[in-house]
Amino acid sequence: MSADAKTEILERLNGALADHPRAPHVPRDYRHTSGLGRDEIIDMLEDRLLDYKANVYRETAQTVAQRVATQLGTSARYVIPEGLDTSWLPEETAARRAIVDPNDGRKASALTVRDLNQVDAVVTSSTVSCAQTGTIFLSGRPDEGRRAITLVPDHHICIVPLDSVVELIPEAMARVEPTAPTTMISGPSATSDIELERVEGVHGPRTLDVILLG
Hints:
The chain has six helices and twelve strands. It is an alpha/beta fold. Strands 1-12-7-4-2-3 form a six-stranded parallel sheet, sandwiched between helices. It has a four-stranded mixed sheet with strand order 8-5-6-9. Strands 10-11 form a two-stranded antiparallel sheet. A hairpin with a 5-residue loop joins β10 and β11 (198-200). The chain is globular.
């Protein structure tokens, strides 16, 4: 965009706002707090995720590492964010090992897009999950990592602590930092072409394994 074009656009915007219009009142009389029990909310999230073709597993602190190992397979190079709880991970072997991303793309040790495209999977935690919509929120926290590591690899193993699951979108948004680079996931990446043929893995991981931890 040329400087002249930019100036013209800004002048038009200033002209349109010259009379200082006031934003209309937005009614917010929708539900802000769930009335469901804890088990009902967890069951709802699982149902929505399965409907979106995600794989869902319920694990405890004692079984989560074995579940991650099973989903990775015996041979895998996988990415983890720098702040992930390593007690959730299986022991490394000659054929299966984790690669730590520093959560800062400016660092020399940060994995490039080419590097990420060559790994088998990524394992992260999550910020909050909304049961009503079956949506998992990632907001770049240390145990979730930067956006690239969850968008480029073809397989995402996402660990969802049960205490981070809520029913409603307002409850979920209240737990997300407003300025955080938020990614919302509702199942594996999928789209469809003009003939309504489903294509998976276009905008993110083709396989999504969700581990409900608690």
